[in-house]
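Per reviewer request, we include the raw input and output of the structure prediction for the construct analysed in the revised manuscript.
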Amino acid sequence: MGLYPYADRYPVVRAFPEQGRPREQILAEIEAMATEEDSPYHEGRISGSIYSGDEAHYAFLNEVYGHYSHANVLQRDMYPSATRFEGEIITMTADMLHAPEAIGVVTSGGTESLMNPLLVYREWGRERGIDRPNVVMPTTAHPALLKGAHYFGIEVRRAAVTDRYVADMASVRSLCDANTVALVGSAGTYPHGLVDPIEELSALALELGTNLHVDGCLGGFVLAWGEALGYPVPVFDFRLPGVTSISADTHKYGFGLKGSSVLLYRTAELRRLQYFIVPDWPGGLYTSPGMSGSRSGGIIAAAWAAMVSLGREGYMAIAADIFRTAAALRAAIEAVPELEVLGDPFFNVAFTTTAASGLDIFLVNDALSTRRWRLNGLQMPPAVHFCVTRPNTQPGVVERFAADLAEAVAHAKANVGTPASSGAFYAGGMTSEQISAGMAWWLDATQALPPA
């Protein structure tokens, strides 16, 4: 599939149409494309991306969304229900993560939930006379943190990871100084699904008198249930006194619609630093809790509905299936002598080829992709991961993957020295040729449409 698919099947819009098209025709196209694109996840062959996969759940959330799809929660006098939804989402998430108080905000997704605390910690530093702030995080920390630091003029100091792919505490400590306004750890990391040594990071943050943000955007809403289910998930939440903020995405394992996330702070004083207020604007007093202005009431209502409809019991049951499936997946990978799992994952299993095998993991991935498996390519080191979500917990999925994986390894053996088509491209899932074409497309907007 190219960068501009469907050009040979449907009309290509090259300019603003003079007349509108019939709604029935538009809906037919939308339904056909959506059905085709969703088919692999129904088979349980997609890593991450589709977290619930329950069509009845989606239908319910879409119905909820429809009641508020036109609502702008910036206008709370018109939609006071948004205050209820937002407050209760924050309260439920705070309860899940053992927050001493329900202090937080609902954001548009993980990127905003990672950028906002950087702004807060920059302002926290300014109040203490720090005009050249830095943040220390492991190399595995999410790139949205680098994006936020770039936007807000914060120096990023990237610590090494251990041979188990979690933050190396000696490296973290060596990078801290009097201008360090925050440390960052992940639960779990996007590349490998691992939990950084949050307890040690918490102790260091307390020792230095600085802050600690825990990125639970990916793993927060699944790892939070692991301890109660009997899995040795390390404590990563507000029970650790040095943790000052945590992000967790309701649109991932919270099973809400895209895009919503929750950002919690330990104190109201920290959250206050996120607010932006203009008291003397001719249009009236302007206040904003974060980077977003207008926000969809439908998205917030749907996130709330997902949480209260599933409840603790529902989340625990789904998490149990995910942990069980991830353990079976890990066992299937470890049963192949040419492969090794990176670190000690609970829900997101990263693996690569052994040095002794001399095989290219991306040749393995190429063969899996021809069998409709969509895994995520990684780099440093080259690897792939399978982030287990609810569709992957269907009966037979792990067994089918194990059989295809054995054939994929055989393909890699038979093609040693052949360049792989796949590679490490976050959220792209593209071949190297598509990546090159995609970069050119972004740099030259005139390539967005196929030739007339």
